Amino acid sequence: MPTQVRPYYVAELRKSEEARTLGDLQLEWHHLERAHILGQRWPLEHNAVHWRMLKFGFRTKNMREIIGQLPRLVFGGVKSFVGTVPIGNTGGANVPALKPLALPDDLAAILNDTFAV
Question: Is residue 44 part of a domain?
């Protein structure tokens, strides 16, 4: 992951942890999705977010999320490695795994500073 993106990725993960500590599941998930968008191009960071999403599924007893995260953990890093990720995809089981989505403006600006999106 480029040094220009890493601080934002880490901040989103930190915010998700803070929200989890406060018991705010919706905010925790929001920040996991944002971390996914930022990290999906790099295998380690991509899989790290899917791992956290899987743990979220277990904590919330959400079978759809648990089942949806398993193939994402297996194939997400591979897709990052070969450069075929759906840009903007938020990573949850509520979104088709291969569907590109519009980038939030602030994340687009971060990624545009690194390379064309």
Answer: yes
Cα distance between residue 41 and residue 24, in whole Å: 27
pTM over 0.85: yes
Structural domain span for residue 57: 6-112
Does 117 reside within a domain? no
- With H, G, I as helix, E, B as strand and everything else as coil, classify residue 91: coil
- Residue 1 maps to a domain: no
pLDDT digits (tens, 9 = 90+) for 34-54: 999 999 999 999 999 999 999
